[in-house]
């Protein structure tokens, strides 16, 4: 069982975008940041629930497949779930539609827990206030021997990296500059210690950097 983080970041290290508006809740930069991932056959089938079978099938898709493989539980932050944007809406059920792509128990870290949500396809959202280590214990117990993914966002991923709880970090570095947002790498000096680091460049220009131990 491994604890995994997979993130898309920009060349200048940003894991969040800042151009969201009420009319355009993801902003234009999110599409720039995730362009190669969103183009993959795996993303289109698994997240967009397309049945056409279309999408790229090269290096980026191999990492997209790996993203979903062998995950038994997911941890995410209140921001990634959308509570920072829709916290006043008691009926908010997350960004991922009626049948979210996780299909496993998802634990949402928040200081304002709310009742659990059962979604179609086996995804349940449970809300908890806990330290990263406590959350990991709970998620590991629910993961049935499979991996736990810390899905994000940037703040929560950084908390787990700072606490030394991550066994495998994969970042897909998009060849774009965002210039602002939350930087994944800040205050993580020496993070590479104890990891084997590999990189692979996809034809899309995305660099897949993996830290494993
Ligand atoms: N680049 C990528 O691959 C990627 C992946 C996923 C998401 N994202 C982006 O990340 C952004 C969201 O990230 P974010 O950094 O703003 O927020 P986040 O990491 O999703 O959530 C942080 C929030 O979670 C709650 N929290 C964190 N640790 C906690 C703990 N130990 N106990 C209780 N609550 C805790 C706190 O919220 P409260 O105090 O309000 O409860 C905290 O402000 C979005 O813009 C999304 O698009 C990027």
Q: Main sheet? A: 9 strands, mixed
- Our measurement of the CA-to-CA distance between the termini, rounded to an integer number of angstroms, reads 12 Å
Q: Work out the radius of gyration.
A: 16 Å
| Share of β-strand residues | 15-25%
- Count the beta strands: 9
* Helix/strand class: alpha/beta
N to C succession of SSEs = EHHHHEHHEEEHEHEEE
| Mean of residue pLDDT values | 96
> Biggest sheet: strands side by side, in what order?
4-5-3-2-6-1-7-9-8
Low-confidence stretches: none
Helical stretch count?
Answer: 8
Chemical compounds bound to the protein: NADP nicotinamide-adenine-dinucleotide phosphate
**Helix percentage:** 25-40%
Shape summary: globular
Describe this entry's structure for a reader.
By secondary structure, the chain is an alpha/beta fold. Helix content is 26%, strand content 24%. It is built from 8 helices and 9 strands. A 9-stranded mixed β-sheet has the order 4-5-3-2-6-1-7-9-8, sandwiched between helices. A hairpin with a 5-residue loop joins β4 and β5. It is globular.
């Amino acid at each position: 069982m491994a604890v995994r983080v997979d993130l898309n970041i920009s060349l200048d290290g940003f894991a969040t975008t800042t151009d969201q508006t009420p009319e355009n809740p993801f902003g234009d930069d999110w599409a720039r940041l995730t362009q190669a991932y969103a183009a993959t056959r795996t993303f289109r089938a698994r997240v967009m629930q397309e049945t056409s079978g279309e999408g790229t099938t090269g290096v980026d898709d191999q990492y997209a497949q790996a993203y979903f493989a062998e995950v038994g539980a997911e941890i995410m932050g209140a921001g990634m779930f959308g509570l920072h944007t829709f916290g006043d809406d008691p009926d908010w059920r997350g960004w991922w539609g009626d049948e979210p792509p996780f299909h496993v128990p998802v634990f949402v870290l928040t200081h304002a827990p709310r009742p659990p949500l059962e979604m179609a396809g086996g995804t349940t959202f449970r809300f908890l206030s806990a330290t990263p280590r406590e959350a990991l214990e709970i998620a590991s117990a629910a993961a049935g021997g499979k991996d736990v993914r810390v899905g994000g966002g940037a703040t929560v991923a950084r908390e787990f990296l700072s606490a030394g709880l991550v066994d495998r970090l994969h970042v897909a570095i998009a060849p774009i500059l965002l210039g602002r947002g939350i930087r994944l790498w800040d205050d993580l000096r020496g993070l590479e210690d104890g990891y084997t680091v590999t990189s692979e460049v996809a034809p899309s220009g995305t660099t897949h950097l993996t830290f494993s131990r």
